[in-house]
Amino acid sequence: MTVDGLVNVEASDDLLTKRPVAYRGGTAKGPVAAEVARQAAPDLDPPPQTDPAEIAMAALSAVVREIGARAARRAVEFGASLQAAYALDTAVCVEAGAIGERFLASIGTPLAASWSLVEVADVHHGGIVPADWPALAKVAGEPLDLPALESWFYALPSFDTPKDATHG
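^ that's the sequence the OP posted. Answer follows.
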C-alpha cells in the first residue's frame, strides 16, 4: 500500500510471484469444482468507487472510538491507578482526535468547523467504546466509584502541554 492508501500494483505482483506455488491458491477438482463454478457468476458491474477522504475519516474514527478504552486497560495492566487510567481514557481519545483532524486537514479534507473527530466517531461511527471499569477496578484492586472518578477528572487543570514541557 502507498501512504495515501492505494495499492502498489507492481509491488503486489512482485510479492505474489515470489510466493511458493502451494500458497497461490488453485482450482477445485471433482464435484466441488462444478458447484463452485455454478455459484460464482461473473460480476460485470464496475466496483463501487469509494472516496479516499471517507475511508480516511472512517479509519481515524475507528481509532478514536477505541483508543481511550485500550489506553485505560493498558494503564491498569502496567500498574497505574484507576485515576490515571480514567484520565488516559479521555485524554488519549481527545489527542488522537486532534491528530486525526490535523491529518485530514493536511490532505485537504478538514472536518466541518462545528465538528471534532471525537464527535464524528461518537455520533456517526458507533459511539466511543467505553472501558470496562468494573473489570479494571478488579485488576487494579481498587473500589470502583465512577462518579468520584469523573468529578476528580473534571476538577483537573486542562491537560494541555505545560509551557515548560517539550517533546518530539
